[in-house]
Specification:
The chain has 204 residues and is an all-alpha fold. The chain has a single domain, classed as Vanadium-containing Chloroperoxidase, domain 2 (Orthogonal Bundle). The protein has helices spanning 2-28, 33-47, 51-62, 64-82, 85-112, 117-120, 138-153, 157-176, 182-198. Helix 1 packs antiparallel against helix 9 and helix 4 runs parallel beside helix 7 (138-153). 40% of the residues are buried. It is found in: Cell membrane. Residues 91-200 form the Phosphatidic acid phosphatase type 2/haloperoxidase domain. This is Phosphatase PAP2 family protein. Keywords: Cell membrane, Hydrolase, Membrane, Transmembrane, Transmembrane helix. It is a multi-pass membrane protein.
C-alpha cells in the first residue's frame, strides 16, 4: 500500500492542480468564449427537450450509483464464490479508482465553487434544481472512472463498448437536465479516466 501511495500521489496531485487551474479560469472569466459556448449548448438542449426524452435522461442520471457500486461489488462477490484472486483484485482496482475520483471531485467542487448553470444564467431552466456547485460533474467523474477501470481490467469490445456508452449517456444527461455545463462534464470525464489510468498498476 505504501508503494502505491508513493507511486501515484505525485501524478494525482498534478492532475488535481491542472484541473483546478482550468476550473478557476472558467469561473473568473464567466463571459469568455468557453462560458458563452456553455450557455449556448445549455439553451439549445433546453429548447429541444421532450417529456419522453426527459424521462429517459432522468433514469440514466440515476443509474450512476448502481454502476459505480454494482460493478466492483459483483466482481468481489464473483471472485469470492469462484475463488478467483484476479477478479477480487480487479474489484479493488475499480472501487479504488471510482472512490478516488469521487473524492477529488468533491475537493474540486469546494475549491472552484462554480455556480450551477441555472444560478449563473437565469435563462437556463433545469428539470430539477441540483444542490452544491457545478465544476466538475460528479456523475461524469465516477461513471467514466468505473468504465475506464473496468475496460482496463477486461479489455474486450463487449466490455468497453457498453461501459463507455453508459458513462457517456449518464454524463450527457447531466447537461440535458440543466444541472451541468458541458465543460463540467468534460472535466469530470477527464478526471475519471485519468484516475483509472493512474491507478492501473493495482489491477491484476
Amino acid at each position: 500500500m505504501r508503494f502505491i501511495c508513493n507511486k501515484y500521489f505525485l501524478p494525482v496531485f498534478v492532475v488535481i492542480q491542472f484541473i483546478t487551474v482550468l476550473g478557476c479560469s472558467n469561473l473568473c472569466h464567466a463571459q469568455n468564449q468557453i462560458q458563452q459556448f456553455d450557455d449556448r449548448i445549455m439553451l439549445d438542449l433546453q429548447a429541444n427537450r421532450t417529456p419522453a426524452q426527459t424521462d429517459v435522461m432522468l433514469f440514466l442520471s440515476r443509474t450512476y450509483k448502481y454502476g459505480d457500486v454494482g460493478v466492483p461489488a459483483a466482481l468481489l462477490v464473483g471472485g469470492i464464490i469462484t475463488n478467483d484472486s484476479k477478479m477480487r483484485q480487479n474489484s479493488l482496482y475499480i472501487a479504488s479508482s471510482t472512490a478516488i475520483s469521487y473524492g477529488v471531485m468533491l475537493l474540486l467542487k469546494h475549491l472552484v465553487k462554480r455556480p450551477r448553470p441555472f444560478v449563473q444564467n437565469i435563462n437556463i431552466v433545469p428539470v430539477y434544481r441540483a444542490s452544491s456547485t457545478s465544476f466538475p460533474s460528479g456523475h461524469a467523474a465516477s461513471t467514466f472512472s468505473t468504465a475506464m477501470a473496468l475496460s482496463n481490467a477486461y479489455p474486450k469490445w463487449y466490455v468497453i463498448a457498453p461501459s463507455f456508452l453508459w458513462a457517456g449517456s449518464v454524463s450527457y444527461s447531466r447537461s440535458y437536465l440543466g444541472v451541468h455545463y458541458p465543460t463540467d462534464v468534460t472535466a469530470g470525464a477527464s478526471l475519471g479516466v485519468g484516475t483509472a489510468l493512474l491507478l492501473q498498476g493495482i489491477k491484476h
